[in-house]
């Protein structure tokens, strides 16, 4: 009888321990991007949903330099989640291009979020009408090692140019826009949701011209790099840009550490996609996110927790 009582007490204690673990505060880092871009406020909106919809959840949206940095942070265990470009995530997982010889094995996918457009802006008096006109010009190609830098490299290749043909700068979105405004730059590449805050400010203060990526060059780039799609930046997106501009786009993606427990990732995936109205209210890009589109454009395996959630919805 004493043994039964002792066993019962042990089981109760074990139950209390398990209960305590499940209710323990969960602290995570969501790596985003620069404060002048879309990732930082958008990531903050995601973190807020998780913090308010999941008990004892504490996710901090952290400003960072770029997609490549975010993926390395996850791989090193210094962040659990990140908003990244799908092309950069593909490079990291397969150890190619930006990550040549550096295969990151601790990264998985929760889902894709919204299209990101490679926006090419130049000063109104630059005389630049095509990427082919960039030769000898002062061009910012985003932070060093960023997905933007690689987008710039690939698009310039489509027009027969390399970085050696330009006066290259590696600046943040905000710094790039300021450089065009103060005359130290002729143009810049910004891969982000449309509209982008830094470009909105530039259009309002000094004006800008958007440079298209179209025709055979766009077709060849898309054929060579399958993660690009052709898209249109509507006229009026930025002050003074009245006509539509043809451009290329990739997809923002929510990445996660492969080491996280399936149940936690399932819970967070479910909380996010069941509260998309909150995301849309907090940030305009939230209107472009859906469970149906989240399973498209994915080349890196889904985390088991995310896969389980989408499978329950009948999405593969």
Describe this structure in words.
This protein is α/β, with parallel strands linked by helices and 316 residues long. The chain has two domains: 25-114 and 252-312, D-Maltodextrin-Binding Protein, domain 2 (3-Layer(aba) Sandwich); 117-250, 3-Layer(aba) Sandwich (D-Maltodextrin-Binding Protein, domain 2). The chain contains twelve helices and ten strands. Strands 1, 2, 3, 4, 5, 6, 7, 8, 9 and 10 form a ten-stranded mixed beta sheet that branches.
Structural topology:
Blueprint: H1 2-22, E1 26-31, H2 39-53, E2 57-62, H3 67-75, E3 81-85, H4 86-94, E4 107-122, E5 138-140, H5 147-158, E6 167-169, H6 173-182, E7 187-192, H7 197-205, E8 209-210, H8 215-224, E9 229-233, E10 245-257, H9 262-273, H10 276-282, H11 291-294, H12 304-312
Parallel strand pairs: 1-2, 1-3, 5-6, 5-7
Antiparallel strand pairs: 3-10, 4-7, 4-8, 4-10, 9-10
Helix pairs in contact: 5-8, 6-7, 9-12
Comma- or semicolon-separated keywords:
alpha/beta; D-Maltodextrin-Binding Protein, domain 2; ten-stranded mixed β-sheet; 12 helices; 10 strands; disordered N terminus
């Amino acid at each position: 009888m004493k043994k039964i009582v002792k066993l019962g007490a042990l089981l109760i204690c074990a139950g209390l321990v398990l209960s305590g673990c499940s209710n323990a505060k969960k602290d995570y880092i969501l790596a985003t991007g620069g404060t002048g871009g879309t990732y930082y406020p958008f990531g903050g909106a995601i973190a807020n949903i998780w913090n308010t919809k999941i008990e004892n959840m504490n996710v901090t949206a952290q400003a960072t330099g770029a997609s490549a940095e975010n993926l390395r942070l996850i791989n090193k265990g210094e962040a659990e989640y990140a908003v990244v470009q799908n092309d950069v995530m593909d490079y990291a997982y397969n150890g190619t291009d930006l990550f040549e010889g550096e295969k990151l094995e601790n990264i998985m996918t929760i889902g894709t979020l919204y299209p990101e457009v490679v926006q090419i802006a130049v000063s109104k008096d630059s005389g630049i009408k095509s990427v082919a006109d960039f030769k000898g010009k002062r061009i910012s190609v985003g932070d060093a090692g960023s997905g933007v830098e690689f987008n710039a490299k690939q698009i310039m290749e489509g027009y027969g140019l390399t970085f050696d043909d330009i006066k290259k700068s590696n600046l943040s979105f905000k710094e790039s826009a300021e450089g065009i405004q103060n005359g130290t730059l002729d143009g810049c590449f910004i891969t982000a949701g449309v509209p982008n805050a830094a470009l909105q400010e530039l259009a309002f203060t000094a004006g800008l011209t958007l440079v298209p990526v179209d025709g055979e060059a766009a077709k060849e780039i898309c054929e060579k790099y399958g993660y690009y799609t052709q898209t249109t930046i509507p006229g009026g997106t930025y002050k003074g840009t009245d006509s539509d501009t043809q451009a290329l786009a990739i997809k923002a993606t929510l990445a996660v550490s492969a080491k996280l427990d399936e149940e936690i990732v399932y819970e967070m995936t479910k909380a996010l996609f069941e509260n998309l109205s909150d995301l849309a209210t907090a940030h305009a890009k939230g209107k472009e996110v859906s469970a149906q589109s989240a399973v498209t454009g994915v080349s890196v395996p889904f985390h088991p927790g995310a896969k389980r959630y989408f499978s329950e919805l009948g999405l593969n």
